[in-house]
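Work Package 3 (structural annotation) set out to generate three-dimensional models for the target panel prioritized at the project kickoff. During this period the team completed the workflow that converts sequence records into discrete structure tokens, so that structures can be stored uniformly alongside our sequence database. As a representative example, we reproduce one entry of 528 residues exactly as it appears in the project archive.
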Amino acid sequence: MSLKFSAASVLACALLAGWQPSAVAQTERAANPASPASQAASATSSVSSQQQALPPSVEAALQRAKVPREALSAMVVELDAPAKAATTTTRLAFRADEPANPASVMKLITTYAALDLLGPAFQWETPVYFDAQPQDGALRGNVYIQGGGDPQLVLERLWLTMRRLRAMGVTVIVGDIVLDRSAFDIATRDAAKFDGEPWRPYNVAPDALLINFKAMNMRFVPDAAAGVARISYEPPMGGMQLPATVPLAAAATACGDWQGGLKAELAEPGRISFLGSFPSSCGEREWAIAPADPDGYAARAIEGMWRELGGKVTGTVRDGRVPAGLKPVFSNKSLSLAEVIRDINKYSNNVMTQQLFLTLGLQATGRGTWESGRQAMNSWWRSRWPQLTPPVWENGAGLSREERVTARALSGMLQTAWASPQMPELLSSLPIVGVDGTMRRVNTVSAKGMAHLKTGTLRDVTALAGVVNSNSGKRYVLVGMINHPLAPNARPALHALVDWVAQDTPAIPATVATNHSVTGAGKTSARR
């Protein structure tokens, strides 16, 4: 087996997009006047009925993008200010009480809720059961694999699970491999519904037994002598018809849109084909897709990996339930929650966030459903910030046209997070401007390496939120959200806001202003 862990690790980052009893007590802390939550509300309430003039650089960037200023919601609040100065710590509050679609900035709320409720050391478990004992290399019975919602059961860890089966003396399973995915009770959804691109990995639906984000990596390597590009696939997939080569394009063909030139046929379950060609000028390339029939992905990936390791199964790989009374022979533990949220926030992984959202519901109510996730989030929010407008949740990832939050509410949450024991884990999970994650290519005048910010992008949303270190040594919470059909063009306005905060220029005097609604600001369309 020629398994390349480094490629799988890159895929794990690039694709996107069990509760302990001791954690329950944390969920019911009531807000009180001395709590960080109430201090955050006090600090953010000083201009509750007013707006401030925007920094000139932000105004100019909005004008260049042809986006009205009313499409922006923003809040900037100083951190670590003395309590007696709480009414003077708000540097900017612009339409801060207007609900806006935050896109993937919503992941900030979901990941902080998980840290607060589950704790940074929380781990998911994927237990494995036998209903018979192996003898002479054969297990005459079934193997059961029970999904617990692990968001990062990637290629390497699937390999380790199958390898452990082999190490226990199992070569032939004279029976079935049964996959128990009952921990999550969610309806099958149309992967094309959001933006008509079901093969995009960010459109993958969550699953109690989520294997490798339900994604497959295809690697194309030109072989000029043979006139073809050779194709390899990770993970190995059982029961799929996958071509080993594709013809090379004419020698003078530029690389260009090489994916389009392949003319890939991806809609048929269990089969991929290419009707086009691959330009040799591209060199070696990789393409990550979500194959058709996502509900069958786990069975194909597990069968493929088992056979790749020399294992055999006489029956099938199918869905089912673990029989009552069976005890696991071993359990595959996930990475810690602190490590998981780093990949969620750095790379804005949608399906991992949705796994987390459903896990919160599962641990709070015993059922992993969208509704139980929303109940858990609402209960948590009300217990922490009863005085702040609660967000509107759909799936907790921001891949939604319905999710909403105000800049003031998100700012208040971040202020509480800053004063909490979970602050180091949350802050270190955020992209650093100009350094890594989704902010790696962002070039700002003053903020490179100075800010940890979560990004959010939909076709008509652009957003940033996090913590900015200023030249004066002060730290600020920053929230900025633009909802408008031309929002992506206005991303420089948010970068200008970050620079303004990092440069720590004097605060702009508050002025009374009138809120204006903007046509199209309330609705969002497909993600880029």
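The radius of gyration is 25 Å.
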